[in-house]
Known about the structure:
This protein is mainly alpha-helical. The chain has helices spanning 2-14, 19-33, 50-64, 72-80, 90-95; strands spanning 38-40, 45-47. 60% of the residues lie in helices and 6% in strands.
Amino acid sequence: DELITRSATSWKEYGERNNKYFYNLVKARNNQTTIKTLQDTDKKESVNKNEDLMRVGRNLYMKLYSSDPVDTNAITELLDNIPDQNKLPTEEAKLL
């Protein structure tokens, strides 16, 4: 909204003559929103090439949203150690 307001004001002031002003606004905004480097945790290094940025970003989200294996033994052990007075009665447990 601020950019639109500024551009409208500037448009009235400078008209079509001053395209350089608008180009510089777009360029500055582009620089603010561009990811220039990422840390590759697998290789312990920073990357800045587009193909490396894409690879590191993709790997990050693949790891982030992948499922971890479930340790059923740990779950069983945890549930077996719940005291009986803290467990639901069988009838209520069946309703779940």
